[in-house]
C-alpha cells in the first residue's frame, strides 16, 4: 500500500491562514454531505441505484449465476466566502512607489472537500466441471483543503491600489483496485490476484504574494454603477446591461513552499509466472516520492473584471430582497465572480508557479519516459546489411530464406547454431520455441510457455463448451427488462430548466450570495433549489441535501469545518458504512478488521456508528470510545494481557525438557 | 513409553508443521544512491521463499531522481548493436540456448529442495515417533542424525537452490553491476565498464539474521556526459566544481541473506531431540 502518500493524505498540515471573520461580516456558503448522494440522485433522476443493484443480482440469479455488487460514497464538501471591511487606515506604496492612505477590505475563502468511495463486485458461475469466480474491490479517496485570505487596499471611493494574499492548501487523491479471478476448466485451475493503485498529493504549506497597481483600478464600480444599455432595455424598462474592463500595469510578487507526492504500486500473485520463465509467484513493486519545493515569482499581473446586470432567472431578476438573519437586504441580481477580481487573479498567478515548481521533476520523468516510448515505437526498423551492402530487415537474418542476393543473411554459426529435432531434422536454433512448429514432429516447440498457452487454449475451449454464453445472453436480456422498470423515461428534475444567479449589494459592491433555480412544473417560473430566502419566491419541491448558508448560520457552519484539515475529519470513516460491502466481499475486503464491540450491542465498532452507545454518532462524539464509566472499567479488565500462543508453546517445551529430570 | 514422550511427539509435530508453513529463506537488501542524485533515492527489496511460493517485493523511495537518472543517462557500452553495426553479430538476448544452458536442474532446483526439506521433516518426525515407541539407541541416533541433516538442508540447500534457479551461479555473460547487484536484476543496472575512476568496496559478516553484506561504490558515470566530454573525465577525475563532476554517482548497499523463521522453529525441535536422546526406559541398554 502506498503508505507514504496515504500518510500525506491523512495528515495534511493545519492551514496557517484559516481564521474566523468578525460577527458583522458578510458570509455565505454551501455544504454537502456525500452520504446522501444516492438518495439525491434518486430525487433528481428517479433512478434508485440500490434498485439497479438488485436488478443486476436478480438478472444474474435468473440466468443461473450469483452476482452481488454495492457501492458506498461518503464525505463532505464545504465552500464558504466571507468578507468584511477593516476601517483602520494604513499606508501602502503602489507599484510606482507612491504612497496612498487606504483601508483594508478582507475576503476569506474556505474550502474543505473529503470523499470516500468504495465499490465491490463478486460473481460466481459454475457448470458441471467448470467454474469462474470473480472478486473485485475498488476504492477512491479525495481530499482538498484550501484557505485563502485576501487583503485588498481601497480608498473611500472603492478604488483598488493592490492586495495581499496568504494561502495554504492541499489536494490529494488515492485510488486502489483489487481483482481476484479463479477459473477452473479442463481440470486446470488459474487464480491470479492483482492489486494496483496510485496516489498523488500536492501540498502548499505556505504561499504569500503581494499585488500593487500602477494606477488605481475601479472594478468594484462594476457592482455599484448600473451600466446603461440603450439598445436593449430589460423587460421592466429599467436600465440594464453588462460591464467589463481589463487592467494592465500591476505587479505581483511572492514566494511559496510546496510538497508534491506520488505513489504507484502493483502487486501480482497467483500468476502462472513460472510457465513464462519467471521464478516468482508473487511480485510487488512500489514507487513513491515526496518532493519538497520552494520558490518565488515576480511578474506583471493583468486583471479583468465584469458583471452582467441583466441576467435573470424568472421570477428572480433586477433587484430582490433577501432574508438574512431576520433582516431584509436589498440586493442586485446578475452574474459576477463570487469574490473580487484581484483575489481571483492573484490566486491564479500565485498558484501557477507553485504548481509548475512542484510538478517539474515529475513532469520531466513522464515527458522523458513517454518520449522514449514514442521513440521506440517510431524507431526505424532495424536493418541487416548484407556483405554486398544490400540492406534487409534485421528479422530476416537467419530466417531460413536467403534474402541477400549473396546469401550472407543466412549464417547459422554466427546466429547461434542449429537445433536438432527429435526426428533428426536440423533447423536454425532461432526457430526453437518461436511459437511455430518447424520440426515436422513439433519437437522444436517444447518450452514451458508453449505448454502454458496450450493449457489456456484447453481451458478456453472447455469454457466455450459450457452454458456460459447462454447464461450471459439470458442475463443481458433479463437485465434490460428489469432496469426499464427502475429508470423513468423523464428525469424528475430537468437540469436544462435550471438557472444560476448571483446577488450583490450595490452600496458596497459586495457579493452576498447566489441561488440555483429550477422550473419544477414547466410554467416558466422557477423555484429556488439552492440559495437564500428570497422574498416572494417559492422553494423547489425537490429537496436535495445540498445546504445553503448565509448570515449566522453560515458563520456557525464555517466555524464547524474550519478545523477539519485531514481527510478522516472531513470524511469520517465511522460515517462510511461499508457493512453491506463487507457482507458481499468478505474478509478479503477488510482482512485486519478489528472485532472490538465497545458497547456490546452486537455491532462491532468498525460498523457501529455509535461505538460507546452514548447516543451520539461517532463523528459528532468528541470521545467516541469513552462510554459510561462502568463500561470503561469493564474495558480495563478486558485489557489485561493474556499468555500468547508462543508463550504457551515455550512453557510446554520447557515442561517436556524438565519432565525427564523429575523422573530422574 | 515415558510419560514425557507424548508431549515430545506432539510438540515436535507442532514445531515441524509451523516450520513447514513459515518463511524458509529471505534476502533483504537496501541500496541508497549516496552521491550524485538528489534526496538519496533508496531501493528496498525483499525476496522470500516458503513451502510453495517465491515472492519478490521492491519499493523505491524518493524515486523521481532515480527515474530521471535511468531515463537521462545514455548507454555507453561498447557492444555493437545491430543498427550500428551492419554486423551480422546478433544481439545477446537473441542467442538461444539449445542445450538448456548450465542450469543443473532445469529451473526446478527449488522444487527439489522443497521435497528434500519435506522429506527431512517427515523423517525427523518418524524417527522421533519410532524411537518413542521403541527407544533403541540406533533409532535415537537416527533422529539426531536426521535433525543435523535437516539443519544443513535448511541452511544450504534452499539458498543454493534459489541461487541456481535465479541463475546466480552462472553469470559469465552478465556484466558487473555498478550497484553490486543490490538494486536487483529487475532494474536497469548500469555496468561498471560505463564508469570512469570506479571504486568499490565490500564487506561480509555474520549476524543473527544471517549473512550480511555491505557494498560501496563510487565513480563517474560516462553515460551522463556528452560524448565529447567523456575522454577528459576518463583521463582525469574531476573535482567538485569542475566540468564532469556532475556525473559522480555513489552507492551504498546492505544486504542480509538468511533463513527465515523456519530455522527458529526447526531449532526448537533440538531440545526435543535431546530429550529423546537422554530419555530413560531403554530396554536394550537395561538388558
In short:
The complex is a heterodimer of chains A (664) and B (287). By secondary structure, chain A is an alpha+beta fold.
Count of extended strands of chain B: 6
Q: Which sequence of SSEs, written as H and E, runs from N to C of chain B?
A: HEEEHHHHEEHEHH
Envelope shape of chain B: rod-shaped
> Which consecutive residue ranges of chain B, at least 5 long each, have pLDDT under 50?
79-102, 169-175, 282-287
Q: How many beta-strand elements of chain A? A: 20
Write up this protein.
The complex is a heterodimer of chains A (664) and B (287). Chain A folds into 3 domains: 428 residues, no CATH class; 77 residues, no CATH class; 72 residues, no CATH class. Chain A has 664 residues and is of the alpha+beta class. The N terminus and C terminus of chain A are likely disordered. Chain A has 11 helices and 20 strands. In chain A, the strands form 4 sheets. In chain A, strands 1, 2, 3, 4, 5, 6, 7, 8, 9 and 20 form a 10-stranded antiparallel β-sheet that branches. A 6-stranded antiparallel β-sheet of chain A has the order 18-17-16-11-10-19, with no helix packed on it. In chain A, strands 12-13 form a two-stranded antiparallel ribbon. With 287 residues, chain B is of the alpha+beta class. Chain B has one domain. Chain B has a 6-stranded antiparallel β-sheet. The longest helix of chain B is centred in the middle third of the chain and has 29 residues. Chain B is rod-shaped. The two termini of chain B are 16 Å apart. At the A-B interface, strand 9, helix 4, strand 12 and helix 11 of A face helix 1, strand 3, helix 2 and helix 7 of B. Strand 9 of chain A pairs parallel with strand 3 of chain B.
Amino acid at each position: 500500500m502506498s503508505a507514504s502518500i496515504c500518510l500525506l493524505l491523512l495528515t495534511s498540515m493545519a492551514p496557517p491562514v484559516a481564521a474566523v471573520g468578525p460577527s458583522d461580516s458578510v458570509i455565505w456558503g454551501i455544504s454537502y454531505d456525500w452520504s446522501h448522494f444516492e438518495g439525491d440522485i434518486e430525487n433528481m433522476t428517479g433512478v434508485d441505484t440500490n434498485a439497479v443493484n438488485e436488478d443486476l443480482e436478480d438478472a444474474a440469479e435468473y440466468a443461473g449465476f450469483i452476482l452481488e455488487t454495492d457501492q458506498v460514497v461518503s464525505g463532505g464538501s464545504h465552500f464558504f466566502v466571507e468578507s468584511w471591511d477593516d476601517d483602520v487606515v494604513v499606508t501602502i506604496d503602489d507599484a510606482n512607489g507612491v504612497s496612498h492612505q487606504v483601508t483594508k477590505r478582507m475576503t476569506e475563502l474556505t474550502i474543505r472537500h473529503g470523499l470516500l468511495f468504495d465499490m465491490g463486485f463478486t460473481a460466481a458461475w459454475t457448470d458441471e466441471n467448470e467454474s469462474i469466480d470473480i472478486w473485485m474491490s475498488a476504492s477512491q479517496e479525495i481530499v482538498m483543503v484550501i484557505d485563502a485570505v485576501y487583503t485588498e487596499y481601497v480608498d473611500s471611493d472603492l478604488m483598488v491600489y493592490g492586495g495581499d494574499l496568504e494561502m495554504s492548501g492541499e489536494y490529494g487523491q488515492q485510488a486502489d483496485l483489487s481483482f481476484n479471478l479463479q477459473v477452473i476448466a479442463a481440470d486446470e485451475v488459474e487464480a491470479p490476484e492483482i492489486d494496483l493503485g496510485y496516489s498523488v498529493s500536492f501540498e502548499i504549506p505556505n504561499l504569500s504574494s503581494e499585488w500593487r497597481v500602477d494606477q488605481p483600478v475601479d472594478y468594484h464600480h462594476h457592482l455599484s454603477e448600473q451600466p446603461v444599455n440603450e439598445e436593449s432595455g430589460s423587460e421592466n424598462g429599467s436600465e440594464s446591461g453588462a460591464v467589463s474592463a481589463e487592467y494592465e500595469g500591476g505587479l505581483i510578487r511572492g514566494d511559496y513552499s510546496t510538497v508534491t507526492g506520488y505513489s504507484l504500486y502493483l502487486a501480482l500473485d497467483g500468476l502462472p509466472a513460472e510457465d513464462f520463465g519467471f521464478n516468482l509467484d508473487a511480485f510487488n513493486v512500489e514507487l513513491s516520492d515526496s518532493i519538497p519545493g520552494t520558490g518565488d515569482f515576480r511578474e506583471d499581473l493583468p486583471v479583468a473584471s465584469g458583471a452582467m446586470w441583466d441576467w435573470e432567472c424568472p421570477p428572480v431578476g433586477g433587484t430582490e430582497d433577501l432574508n438574512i438573519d431576520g433582516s431584509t437586504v436589498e440586493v442586485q441580481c446578475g452574474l459576477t465572480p463570487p469574490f473580487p477580481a484581484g483575489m481571483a487573479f492573484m490566486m491564479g498567478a500565485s498558484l501557477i508557479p507553485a504548481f509548475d515548481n512542484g510538478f517539474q521533476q515529475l513532469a520531466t520523468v513522464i515527458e522523458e519516459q513517454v518520449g522514449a516510448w514514442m521513440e521506440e515505437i517510431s524507431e526505424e526498423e532495424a536493418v541487416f546489411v548484407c556483405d554486398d551492402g544490400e540492406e534487409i530487415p534485421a528479422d530476416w537474418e537467419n530466417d531460413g530464406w536467403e534474402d541477400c542476393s549473396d546469401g550472407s543473411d543466412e549464417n547459422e554459426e554466427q546466429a547461434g547454431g542449429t537445433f536438432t529435432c527429435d526426428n533428426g531434422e536440423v533447423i536454425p536454433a532461432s526457430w526453437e520455441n518461436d511459437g511455430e512448429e518447424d520440426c515436422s514432429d513439433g519437437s522444436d516447440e517444447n518450452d514451458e510457455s508453449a505448454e502454458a498457452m496450450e493449457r489456456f487454449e484447453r481451458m478456453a475451449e472447455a469454457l466455450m463448451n459450457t452454458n456460459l454464453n447462454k447464461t450471459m445472453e439470458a442475463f443481458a436480456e433479463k437485465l434490460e427488462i428489469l432496469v426499464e422498470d427502475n429508470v423513468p423515461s423523464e428525469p424528475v428534475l430537468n437540469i436544462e430548466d435550471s438557472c444560476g444567479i448571483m446577488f450583490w449589494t450595490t452600496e458596497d459592491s459586495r457579493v452576498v450570495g447566489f441561488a440555483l433555480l429550477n422550473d419544477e412544473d414547466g410554467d416558466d417560473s422557477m423555484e429556488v433549489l439552492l440559495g437564500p430566502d428570497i422574498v416572494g419566491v417559492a422553494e423547489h419541491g425537490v429537496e436535495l441535501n445540498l445546504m445553503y448558508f448565509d448570515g449566522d448560520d453560515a458563520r456557525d457552519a464555517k466555524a464547524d469545518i474550519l478545523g477539519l484539515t485531514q481527510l478522516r475529519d472531513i470524511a469520517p470513516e465511522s460515517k462510511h458504512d461499508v457493512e453491506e460491502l463487507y457482507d458481499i466481499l468478505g474478509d478479503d475486503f477488510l482482512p485486519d478488521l478489528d472485532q472490538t464491540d465497545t458497547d456490546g450491542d452486537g455491532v462491532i465498532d468498525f460498523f457501529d456508528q455509535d461505538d460507546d452507545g452514548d447516543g451520539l454518532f461517532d463523528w459528532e462524539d468528541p470521545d467516541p470510545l469513552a462510554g459510561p464509566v462502568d463500561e470503561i472499567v469493564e474495558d480495563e479488565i478486558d485489557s489485561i494481557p493474556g499468555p500468547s500462543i508462543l508463550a504457551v508453546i515455550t512453557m510446554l517445551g520447557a515442561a517436556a525438557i524438565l519432565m525427564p529430570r523429575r523422573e530422574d | 513409553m515415558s510419560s514425557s514422550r507424548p508431549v515430545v511427539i506432539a510438540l515436535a509435530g507442532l514445531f515441524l508443521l509451523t516450520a513447514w508453513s513459515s518463511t524458509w529463506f529471505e534476502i533483504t537488501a537496501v541500496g541508497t544512491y549516496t552521491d550524485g542524485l538528489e534526496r538519496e533515492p533508496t531501493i528496498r527489496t525483499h525476496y522470500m521463499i516458503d513451502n510453495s511460493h517465491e515472492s519478490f517485493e521492491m519499493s523505491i523511495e524518493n524515486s523521481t531522481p532515480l527515474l530521471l537518472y535511468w531515463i537521462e543517462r545514455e548507454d555507453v557500452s561498447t557492444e555493437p548493436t545491430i543498427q550500428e553495426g551492419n554486423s551480422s553479430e546478433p544481439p545477446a538476448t537473441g542467442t538461444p540456448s539449445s542445450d538448456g544452458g548450465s542450469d543443473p536442474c532445469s529451473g526446478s532446483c527449488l522444487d527439489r529442495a522443497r521435497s528434500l526439506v519435506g522429506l527431512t521433516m517427515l523423517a525427523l518426525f518418524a524417527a522421533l515417533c519410532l524411537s518413542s515407541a521403541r527407544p533403541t539407541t540406533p533409532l535415537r541416533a537416527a533422529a539426531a542424525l536426521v535433525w543435523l541433516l535437516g539443519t544443513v538442508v535448511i541452511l544450504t540447500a534452499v539458498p543454493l537452490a534459489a541461487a541456481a534457479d535465479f541463475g546466480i551461479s552462472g553469470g559469465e555473460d552478465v556484466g558487473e553491476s555498478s550497484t553490486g547487484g543490490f538494486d536487483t536484476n529487475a532494474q536497469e543496472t548500469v555496468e561498471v565498464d560505463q564508469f570512469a575512476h570506479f571504486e568499490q568496496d565490500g564487506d561480509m559478516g555474520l549476524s543473527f539474521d544471517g549473512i550480511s553484506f555491505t557494498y560501496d561504490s563510487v565513480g563517474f558515470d560516462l553515460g551522463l556526459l556528452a560524448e565529447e566530454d567523456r575522454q577528459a573525465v576518463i583521463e582525469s577525475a574531476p573535482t567538485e566544481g569542475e566540468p564532469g563532476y556532475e556525473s559522480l554517482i555513489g552507492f551504498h548497499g546492505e544486504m542480509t541473506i538468511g533463513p527465515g523463521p523456519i530455522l527458529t522453529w526447526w531449532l526448537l525441535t533440538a531440545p526435543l531431540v535431546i530429550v529423546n536422546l537422554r530419555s530413560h526406559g531403554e530396554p536394550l541398554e537395561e538388558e
